Amino acid sequence: MSLEAGTIVTLKVAREVSPHGFFMTDGVNEVLLPYTERTGNMKFRNGQDTEVFIHHDSEDRLIATMKRPLLTFGEIGALEVADIHPRLGCFLEMGLGRQLLLPKRELPETPELQPEIGDRVFVRMDRDKQGRLLARASGEEELSPLCFQAPESWKNQWMKATVYRPLQMGTFVVVDGGVLGFGALGLIHSTERPRPLRLGEVIDVRVARVREEDGRVNLSMAKPKEIGMDEDAERILEFMRGRDGGAMPYSDSTAPDIIKLRFGISKSAFKRALGRLMKNGLIEQDDNWTRLKQTGDEAINEKPSNEKSSGPQQ
């Protein structure tokens, strides 16, 4: 039986060859354990059993190490992107001081969806045709058996999630399960994210819904509407209080692009905020203007504004 990269095996010390290290054997095959790959202060003796991990050095020669990798052959895990090569792909940290290649063909074709240094990509350790170790991106089929069904208590909770499949229509993620392991599978629809998300990107998400049928979750990167509406309403009030007469040339009829430019929110969010303020008796509208309501001495001392405008002021 030959020694294969990516496996942890127990070998015997065959002999020491200075200044290189120890040759280890399974009784048939031999592999070098360099001095730099030995851990601990244990003295080696011939015939001693030692557990090692088999991989390739920079010259594609099989070597052994006593260091423990984050993954072994066939295992799946999230590895951090340590370096990026524009032609080869991403190099992932695997705990040995030597990286594991995630080939470019395993990455999304769209550049903005490709990982950046520091991202965490779910991969499976595999071998190429020459037996050298490499990584392959993990998809739903591989991740699903390792994930669990999310509990209903997750609803409206903010969680960490890692992107495993980035698409324009939506982003598929693994929601962090903490000590429970891989976590739960989830989807962020394109309308619930501020931008397309990268493979391996770690983000904050809010659990909008836990699906009863399979325990997967629908996610959002936006705050709940009620909370968001309060913040939007406060922003609008602050803007109006800073204007002469407490009036602004924006209303339900204002174009969406103007609302986005002025307040940084959508037309629907703007209308919800105005509705909240009108319900609370804080504002009123006439024509295309919105004004702060005035009562008592404020109404007496404040000269009424008959200002009109054919368009919004900047």
Automatic annotation (TrEMBL):
Gene3D superfamilies, per database record: Nucleic acid-binding proteins (2.40.50.140), Winged helix-like DNA-binding domain superfamily/Winged helix DNA-binding domain (1.10.10.10)
Name the UniProt record assigns to this protein: RNA-binding protein
Disordered: annotated segments: 293-314
PROSITE patterns xref list: S1
Pfam families: CvfB_1st, CvfB_2nd, S1_2, WHD_CvfB
Family from the record: Belongs to the CvfB family.
Record organism: Saccharibacillus brassicae
GO MF annotation list: nucleic acid binding
Sequence ranges assigned to domain S1 motif in this UniProt record: 156-222
Family annotation (InterPro entries): CvfB_fam, CvfB_S1_2nd, CvfB_S1_3rd, CvfB_S1_st, CvfB_WH, NA-bd_OB-fold, S1_domain, WH-like_DNA-bd_sf
Basic and acidic residues composition-biased segments: 293-306
